[in-house]
Design a protein that fits this description.
The structure holds two protein chains of two kinds.
Chain A: E1 2-3, E2 6-7, H1 18-25, E3 44-47, E4 50-53, E5 66-68, H2 82-89, H3 99-112, H4 118-125, H5 136-145
Parallel strand pairs in A: 1-5
Antiparallel strand pairs in A: 1-2, 3-4, 3-5
Chain B: H1 5-8, H2 20-24, E1 40-46, E2 52-58, H3 60-63, E3 68-73, H4 74-77, E4 106-107, E5 113-119, H5 122-129, E6 133-138, E7 163-167, H6 173-181, E8 184-194, E9 204-210, E10 215-220, H7 225-236, E11 243-246, H8 262-274, E12 278-281, H9 284-291, E13 295-305, E14 311-323, H10 332-338, E15 347-356, H11 371-387, H12 391-398, E16 407-408, E17 414-415, H13 420-431, H14 433-445, E18 449-462, E19 469-476, E20 482-486, H15 495-508, E21 514-518, H16 535-562, E22 569-572, E23 575-578, E24 581-587, H17 588-596, E25 611-617, E26 622-635, E27 642-652, H18 659-678, E28 709-713, H19 730-748, H20 761-770
Parallel strand pairs in B: 1-12, 10-11, 14-15, 20-21, 27-28
Antiparallel strand pairs in B: 1-5, 2-4, 2-6, 3-5, 7-15, 8-13, 9-10, 9-12, 13-14, 16-17, 18-26, 19-20, 19-25, 22-23, 23-24, 26-27
Classes of the chains: A alpha+beta, B alpha+beta.
Chain lengths: ~150, ~775
């Protein structure tokens, strides 16, 4: 598979999840594990452009796939993507643990729906859990990127 | 003393956070990101039953499983304990139970650890846990805290009963007469559900005892790195200077990570025993079932008023559970201290029992004493209804006005520098309380149930004992960049940012050149840890003291080198200049270099270097902030579901360092409170089996469940340096009361009432059916 544009070839144990593969074998620790049962969304990554939960996928399923993690969303010089910058500008994070999952989910959501309604934003975000912010800054950040 | 405008605006500004670029790009470093050479991984074997006598633990098969290095039981680790397992602040409370980290006589709750596997990988450790055979003889558990004191069973057999603590304050004759003969009174029993801290990052630790270097390195998700060091030294018998603890980025705590629990201590002992690094990362089920429990309490409140609606007195009978191995126990005493809160209430009687149960152990959770606000605010509404008054009108008649401060609380403590009346009125104006009442009548006529609720409170920050002090260490390096070292640390509060704001403004150096280091016992001064909403008032004060001390030294050096009077030196933007003559100036870098390297350029007799360590200590036992939450809700009369329409918070946390950080704390706390009131419920069945062990059963609020929080600010500075007050816990204190009162305000339209949280659809439908709806 390709991870953040870099080809990766590895042989993995059949039960190894994509999240474990990314964290332990690729050293990409920005993908976080918050529940390991597919609810919290902290482990969200892009798989061929769509948001998926890396705790629910086995690495071995992903032959030839293109995976993008949080580390792959910012520019090489470290400058933030528009979604990342909006989270910073609107205090869309506190402890930061859920943040990579939110940023990845929002990136995928806005690329498929660049002009969402309030209801669509709330619905899109409801697959990710945050315990610090009460979602206030996150919602504001999404609206800002959507030009609202 | 005046500062140039450019830097003086920093405190109070909504500057972006220093933490964010690394956290937004996946470059944070949380404990699970720590990897050290030859690190082993641990998994726990935990009890599946609430109470049972351990007959035997068979570990042979597990020990022979692939990758397994050791299977450890109480027999291996309990004898290694060199000192009490309690966190330092609770040492004086005595042992909560047997002096053990792993269960070896009885298992005492579902999730109680009785063995640990250490293996090469986490998967191998978890596989081997499945091979451990526990032979256990089931015993009758003490599952229900409300009857625990009547039970013949004992959570801890050496104790006389299941009482963990309490305070009996008999009702005196004067208050008894008042409650019985006052023109108006109300008595209700209010039940608060068990709901939990639930940080998105579970607990975790990497403990590495290196026998060659005779030293411990520990990385841990904690709020209190220095106490982790103290406890590590105490339980292993090494000295504190052999232990270095680093917290790194911490993914939320909310009280759960204030104290080092048995689980982490087991990992520390295992590493010490095996002489190699051991990592344990808790999974979500463990976190829900076995990390910490909170809330789960009830109180019967009697409140009385005279003809004019002056509240005369309150009687409270409270009970809560502390589980099997409480790390801090009940916070009801703090609730008693602040119970009368924002009102003039001359008489109070508060009795409380805390009981051991065969459930997960209690620990502090954001506003651990908030039952006082939760039940007081509902009792005030009850009293208002009995008087035929609007709940806000009864509050207006009793709320403390500014000219009535300082006010001596019934408990004997002086309350001052608060603004309950102002926040009540600001919130009422923001939500258009009177306008809502008119709209409510109109909507009710059209068949809708909408309601408004108030949660008015005083938020105390404990400054008792070691909580009274915090240190800050600032060092300006020879190149003029500034390092700040804090013993406490952020687990989401943005302390790197707010610290840099205070330092930049008070030293006179650019914000971007200030770097904040926190939570590393190897480099930072001893501190008690982040908790109790003390980072603003006490840590903030220490930072301000240190910053001003350093600035004075800069001024002295600059005055000497520029041959000017210290009174004429301004320091701003990293430059010290003679006022009115900007060409006569020295940069902070030039001053700093001379302080370390060109010692002849210093004023005669001055100590070289440009750094300072200051500890701030307050002499007051409590500091106070205050707020008023108001929300409006709609209750669906057929499904019983509750939708929050508006949610406003008027908060007085003194001088705000960064309003966005303040509002973030308010919103986060409020949404946790909303979750607790409407969704979250950690349920045990009658046998002590937890029923809500995943995020599919334990419902956290999502973005779809929360209203937009609207903020109002009142600013009554504290008397501490900087005038900052705490704001971390208030949101979680006020919100459940406001939601409870709003739901019941809507239900009152049809004569229904719910006194037990959460205000779930089932409970509301039941209440509506009870009144024939």
């Amino acid at each position: 598979m390709a991870v953040n544009g870099i080809p990766r070839t590895a042989s993995v144990e059949d039960r190894r999840t994509l999240a474990e593969f990314l964290r332990e074998q690729c050293g990409l620790t920005g993908t976080h594990l918050g529940c390991e049962h597919g609810v919290c969304g902290a482990c969200t990554v892009l798989l061929d452009g769509g948001a998926v939960r890396s705790c629910l996928l086995f690495a071995a399923q992903l032959q030839d796939a293109e995976v993008t993690t949080i580390e792959g969303l910012s520019a090489e010089d470290g400058s933030l993507s528009p979604v990342q910058q909006a989270f910073a500008d609107h205090h869309g994070l506190q402890c930061g643990f859920c943040t990579p999952g939110f940023v990845v989910s929002v990136t995928a959501f806005l690329s498929s729906n660049p002009a969402p309604t309030d209801g669509e934003i709330a619905h899109a975000l409801s697959g990710n859990l945050c315990r610090c912010t009460g979602y206030q800054g996150i919602i504001a950040a999404v609206k800002a990127v959507a030009g609202r | 003393m005046t500062f140039a405008a450019a830097s003086s605006r920093l405190v109070g500004s909504r500057i972006n956070r220093k933490e964010d670029p690394r956290l937004l790009t996946g470059r944070g470093r949380y404990v699970d990101d720590v990897v050290v050479p030859d690190m082993l991984n641990a998994a726990f074997a935990r009890s599946d039953i609430a109470r049972g006598r351990i007959v035997s633990i068979e570990t042979t098969a597990a020990a022979a499983a692939p990758g397994v290095v050791a299977v450890l039981t109480g027999t291996d680790l309990n004898p290694l304990l060199a000192g009490p397992i309690a966190a330092t602040p609770t040492l004086g409370m005595g042992s909560p139970g047997p002096h053990k980290v792993l269960a070896d006589d009885e298992v005492r709750y579902v999730g109680d650890p009785y063995a640990m596997v250490v293996a090469r990988s986490r998967a191998e450790a978890e596989d081997a846990v499945e091979l451990i055979e526990l032979d256990v003889e089931s015993l009758v558990p003490v599952a229900d805290y409300t009857t625990a004191l009547l039970s013949d069973e004992r959570v801890h057999p050496q104790l006389e009963d299941n009482r963990a603590g309490g305070m009996v304050q008999p009702l005196d004759d004067e208050l008894r007469t008042l409650l019985e003969s006052a023109p108006y009174s109300a008595t209700d029993t209010f039940v608060q559900n068990r709901y939990l801290a639930v940080p998105m990052e579970t607990r975790g630790i990497v403990a590495w005892w290196d026998p060659g270097r005779m030293s411990f390195d520990i990385w841990v998700s904690t709020q209190s790195p220095h106490d982790v060091r103290t406890v590590t030294a105490r339980v292993t018998g090494v000295s504190e200077n052999q232990v270095r603890v680093q917290m790194g980025d911490v993914g939320g705590g909310f009280g759960q990570k204030a104290y080092l629990a048995r689980d982490e201590q087991i990992v520390i002992l295992a590493s010490y025993h095996l002489g190699c690094p051991v990592k344990w990362i808790e999974d979500r089920r463990e976190n829900l079932v076995a990390a910490t429990s909170s809330r789960a309490e009830r109180a019967t409140v009697s409140i009385a008023a005279d003809q004019l609606g002056n509240i005369l007195g309150v009687r409270v009978d409270h009970i809560d559970e502390v589980g099997a191995y409480p790390m801090a126990g009940s916070a009801a005493m703090m609730g008693a201290v602040i119970f009368t809160g924002p009102y003039r209430i001359p008489k109070l009687s508060f009795s409380t029992d805390s009981v051991y149960t065969n459930t997960c152990s209690r620990a502090p959770y954001r506003g651990p004493w908030q039952i006082e606000t939760y039940v007081r605010e509902q009792a005030v509404d009850s009293l208002a209804r009995n008087m035929g008054l609007d709940p806000i009108e009864l509050r207006r008649r009793n709320v403390l006005q500014r000219d009535q401060l300082p006010y001596l609380l019934p408990i004997g403590l002086s309350l001052d520098h608060v603004s309950p009346a102002e926040t009540l009125e600001q919130a009422a104006a923001m939500i258009d309380y009177d306008g809502f009442r008119a709209w409510q009548r109109q909507e009710f006529a059209a068949g809708r149930l909408v309601g408004v609720g108030i949660g008015l409170y005083i938020e105390p920050q404990s400054a008792m004992g070691p909580y009274a002090a915090e240190p800050a260490h600032i060092r300006i390096q020879p190149d003029g960049s500034t390092d700040v070292y804090l013993g406490s640390g952020s687990h989401g509060q943005g302390i790197e940012t707010t610290t840099a704001q205070i330092v930049s403004e008070n030293v006179g150096v650019p914000f971007d050149t200030v770097k904040v280091h926190q939570g590393d016992t190897g480099t930072t001064p001893y501190a008690f840890g982040t908790g109790g909403s003390r980072s603003g008032p006490i840590l903030g004060a220490a930072i301000q003291l240190a910053a001003r001390d350093l600035r004075s030294k800069i001024v002295e050096i600059a005055a000497h080198q520029l041959e000017a009077s210290p009174d004429d030196i301004e320091v701003t933007g990293g430059v010290a200049a003679v006022r009115g003559t900007p060409t006569r100036a020295r940069t902070i870098g030039e001053i700093s270099r001379s302080a370390y390297l060109d010692l002849g350029a210093l004023p005669p007799g001055m100590e070289p270097g440009l750094e300072t360590l200051k500890r701030y200590k307050t002499d007051m036992p409590f500091l106070f902030s205050n707020a008023c939450h108001m929300c409006t809700v709609e209750v669906d009369g057929s499904t019983g579901s509750v939708r929050i329409l508006r949610f406003v918070v008027s908060e007085d946390c003194g001088v705000m360092i960064n309003p966005s950080v303040v509002e973030g704390q308010i919103a986060g706390g409020a949404v946790q409170g909303i979750g607790g009131a409407l969704l979250e419920d950690f349920i045990y069945d009658a046998d002590g089996n937890p029923l809500t062990t995943t995020f599919l059963d334990y419902l956290l609020p999502t973005a779809s469940d929360v209203p937009q929080i609207e903020y109002g600010h009142v600013e009554t500075p504290a008397t501490t340096p900087g005038g900052f007050k705490g704001v971390g816990e208030g949101g979680a204190i006020g919100a459940p009361a406001a939601v409870a009162n709003a739901v019941n305000d809507a239900l009152h339209l049809v004569g229904a009432r719910v006194r037990e949280a959460p205000f779930s659809p089932a409970r509301i439908v039941e209440a509506l059916e009870a009144v024939g709806r």
